[in-house]
Amino acid sequence: MASSVPGYSPSFKRPPETLRLRRKRARSLGAELAPGGRPEPAPRRAALAAGLPLRPYPAAGRGGGPGAPGRNPFARLDNRPRAAAEPPDGPPQAPGPVPGSHRERDVLRAEKPETTALAGPLPGAPEMPSLVRPTSHRSFSESDMPPSGSTELPADWSIKTRLLFTSPHPFAWADHLKAQEEAQGVVQHCRAVEVTLPPGIQDPKLCTELRCAFQQSLIYWLHPAFPWLSLFPRIGADRKMSAKTSPWSNDESLQHILMSDWSVSFTSLYNLLKTKLCPYFYVCTYQFTILFRAAGLAGNDVITALISPTTRGIREAMKNEGIEFSLPLVKESGHEKKKASGTSLGPGQEQAVSDEDEEESFSWLKEMGVQDKIKKPDILSIKLRKEKHEVQVDHRPESVVLVKGTNTLTLLNFLINCKSLIAASGPQAGLPPTLLSPIAFRGATMQMLKARSVNVKKQGVSGYKDQFSLEITGPVMPHSLHSVTMLLRSSQSGSFSAGLYTHEPTAVFNICPPVDRVLGKETVREELANCGLHPQTLDQLSQTPVLGKSSLRSVEMRDYVYNWRS
Q1: pTM
Q2: I need a labelling partner for 196 at 20 to 30 A (CA). Which of 37, 82, 135, 455 fits?
Q3: 191 in helix, strand or coil?
Q4: CA distances from 418 to 89, 162, 267, 392, 421 (A)
Q5: DSSP conformation class of 248
Q6: Which of these, 239, 222, 221, lies nearest to 231 by C-alpha position?
Q7: Contact (CB, 8 A) for 504 and 492
Q8: Residues 72-84: pLDDT tens digits?
């Protein structure tokens, strides 16, 4: 119908010329109209002559008369409303909200990212609209998730680099600890004193137990330690270390001393873990990070080690050392599982396995009787395809490696003697990996997370109001995160929010590996009673991980109930 209207140009090659002609036509007709009138464009006049129904002009609020802006030339020329039998241009859609209505504002508010920042609705809040999209994808079923509005957070095995807490109540109690309070906090940490505070504290600044417990929760142990050099994170830290002094980079004798001292500390940590006097620890290299966990944690009844990210080279080296491991996030065929088991095969056996696989893969050609007419790929091509598949997961979360049981001891010896564990060039050349632990070990140095509180004025509806925040920076391990949240639950009267910044290579440590036998909570508490963790923290870390490849990103507590987002 639009094509029959005079002046219709289907190509619209020169829209500016069309606008110029219409302005000129409007000016020429303006003298014939009464003041405030509006000329009828040629397409509208033609449509009126044809007897077509037209939509009225917009309201006077948009202006009228010769000086008013003309209508959009790219709109439908006849301005006809669609008939009921006329099919729409696209797929059928649900009727949208009326512009300016309460429903439209609700939908727009639901599409904002900050509205979906929590895993579940706050207590007493209305149900979220159906347009809210999930903020993360998890590989586990919804039944495995902790209930929304829980009084406990899920276990998070990633290392945090920064925590930012905000609350309507001040954090002044966390500043300027007295010498006695600082000393008492150190003693409580070394003696693993269990501090349990009441749910609400009337005046946190005058509560000595709270301030000492806060000092206790900020302590961690590190090896090696150089005051002028930040030893965490190690992955991607070359730029920060490039301007630092490293006297060992060109001194082989000094490198040998550092590595020998590191081996002693590493062995000491593993022995503490094996005897269940240390709950877990991290080994941070310039290429990957390793998490060692004691038996009973994360739902496993044996010692486990997770390595991420890995490459085909490091996995092949582990196989050659006889280390049995698995790739929990990679679906493997039967032959690849045999190879990943670390069983040492001779060259003749490997060739026999390859020939056997090749015969099985082409057996269907013999059944059809066309085996002589099809050119089979050679062994080298098959091997290259398998290697390409293995390399595709390198440096990705899917490359995480799981080592269990006695194989972790073989992994210990492998890491001590592995030359590629230390960078051969660059700012990290000759520097041993970083050991992080929640408890003391041989050769370790006591370190403190940095904490500072800031009070700012935030503009609100009725004026400015106080906004209180507490920032904690450093390698925040799982036990420290849980301990600090327990203290804030008491000091902030069960009301605070937190933004958690994760060291991304460690987020994959939250996967749920296959478990042979799950230990009960009472059994874990009895066996790990002397590991140095608070009983409530131990209960949390003994749970089966549910976060998958993600980690906690934000946490909010209202009325002593947690809501969180990963």
Answers
A1: 0.68
A2: 455
A3: coil
A4: 65, 32, 15, 24, 6
A5: T
A6: 222
A7: no
A8: 655 544 444 444 4
